[in-house]
Predict the structure.
Amino acid sequence: MGNEYQCKYCMKKFARERTLSSHMCEKKRRFMSIDEPSSRIAFQVWYDFMKYVAPQTKKERTTDDFIRSPDYIGFIKFANYIIQLRPTETNKFIKWLFKHSVKLSNWSKRETYSLYIQESSKLETVERAVERMVLLMKSWSEETGHSWEEYFQEVPTVTAVNSIVMGRISPWIIYSSKSAQDLLDRMEPGQLETITRSIDTEWWTKKIQKSPTEVQWCNQILN
Ligand SMILES: [Zn+2]
């Protein structure tokens, strides 16, 4: 009797059906975990990416193509990173990675997200920055029971540093609001250093100097 049962993932042959069904290989494992959240996100991002790099291709890409892709592990790694990072606008971040031809091996690096935050903050108007700030203050108020106007005086500095690094607080606020200055005054030198690393300070210093009307407006709302 020959080896009649073949694994369609690794092509290995088996004499018995039972041996085949209990057999496990890397690609079969990938196939069996395709419905897990990380696999689903990874597949969607990979699918969009393939479409982005080759928009003309007629061929419909399947999960099977994904499982066999040499980039499978890279996309799974990125999906896990996204699940952990929880960016405010995941799709915007992903489109940015595509557009700037960032190498897949750099997608899950802290520096990459930080650069994205730096660049996208420069494109935002002061109105949108203040609007997002007010929403952040209100949700902080709901979580803590403080009045939202007390944010800059009461929020733990660790929380604030994280919000700045994650781009939830725009440099517009940090540089033009007097209340934000109170917050910075409460921070440790190491925390200030972390913030400086996540903001293009030179660019923002010039921008703030050129925008007195915006600075005044921002202060009226947040003070
Ligand atoms: Zn196999």
